[in-house]
Fold this sequence. Notes:
The complex is a heterodimer. By secondary structure, chain A is α/β, with parallel strands linked by helices. Chain A has helices spanning 6-17, 33-45, 63-66, 97-107, and strands at residues 26-30, 52-54, 85-93, 114-122, 134-138, 147-153, 159-165. In chain A, the strands form 2 sheets. Chain A has a 5-stranded parallel β-sheet. The longest helix of chain A has 13 residues, at 33-45. Chain B is of the alpha/beta class. In chain B, helix 5 (150-164) packs across helix 6 (182-193). The longest helix of chain B is centred in the C-terminal third of the chain and has 20 residues, at 298-317. The chains are: A alpha/beta, B alpha/beta.
Amino acid sequence: MQLPEADQLIATLAESMRPRVTADTCLVGIHTGGVWLAERLHALLGLSQPLGSIDVSFYRDDYSAKGLHPQPQGSRIPFDVEGSHIVIVDDVLYTGRTTRAALNELFDYGRPSQVDLAVLVDRGGRELPIAASFCALTLPAPLPAGQNLQLERDDSGALTLRLIHA
Amino acid sequence: MRNPQLNKHGELQHLLTLDGLPRAIITQILDTAAPFTEVAEREVKKLPLLRGKSVFNLFFENSTRTRTTFEIAAKRLSADVINLNVATSSTKKGETLLDTVDNLCAMHADMFVVRHESSGAPYLIAQHLENTGRDHIHVVNAGDGRHAHPTQGLLDMYTIRHYKKEFHNLTVAIVGDVLHSRVARSQIAALTTLGVPEVRVIGPKTLLPTDVEKMGVRVFHSMEEGLKGVDVVMMLRLQNERMNGALLPSPQEFFKVWGLTAEKLALAKPDAIVMHPGPMNRGVEIDSAVADGGQAVILPQVTFGIAVRMAVMSMLGSH
């Protein structure tokens, strides 16, 4: 499968978000790909609120089966969640479990007025009733479970989408 | 023989002692603790990691700080915490330790946090759980006799790493009543495992174990000599309650020779930090001016202790 350029998708995603964001909109990236993507969107949209990040390791529903991630990064929410418009940003939307965990974690900081979800790619395969508010690319057919689609960053900071066959 | 603290996958099964615990596991605990420090600043100071689990605080010996910080740590992980004041309960009526444990297992305990005046009591419980096939129940040693106090040792390592970043270039002095101190044993084990090149113990001959050099430390019988150029000063509490016989002339006399004063601390590096596991005896092992001074990190130790205990319990509870 030919994957489009990440930069092109990021530009598309930013344009689809532009009409709905205001100066007070806060972005929260999900570790790790979502944080890189959120940094780009933050710059493209010229947002003034500081960027947040979430590591959902402590909120995952498969914690007792898979155990703790050996090096959790922790979450950083440098703005007041109470009453804010927040956009959760992730590179790839798959089962929806990461989004659910991120929502749970976010609400432990306060009650946002509205939460949206922005993703670069929707790969299908949802296991929860979750949909993206903004999505640059929806794959025509769901990816098989064994395949892993993720955003990667090289030393120069360039982002690429990579499909890894298990 | 398999390390009794690790399961067959090499994961932490029980935390009994830092002696023999692999460096990778100690580092993993410290790394896991770091993001937990931030939870206290949230609106909801809770993570769901131990939701639905029951943690039993089994304290056969009095403790306020350790029991409280374990309780807070477990509650921040959403566990149900049951505090047993064993000193006033069934053991007084003659029930054995393992019978108490079996009864609590019948109440569906998931984790025991154990403090006991006898060295090895937590190990005995862990072994009993293993022999009876109850692998899903974990034991954390919260201090046993003179043997070990691993979470104190870990929170001390977290504190040192927080202020000094690295271990490989440090000189650390442990001062005072090493003989009666399980804290000192855990500190020495962790410091040497983490690669601290010079660990010193400073104290009177009567309060140092006879074979203390075998633990890989340099021994000093003078504060002036031992504190010279150190990066970290770890004070110990003078354990009057564990002493019998005339090991010391008097607390006042002890303070004159072994108490940490500003003058003695000036011999250490200018940016040296001062630690104490608490509870402090002001005017006995430490002068108030030092305890409340700019180099003391004694209260941050308490705060870090919660995050470190959260890390230990979440790692145990994950399998």
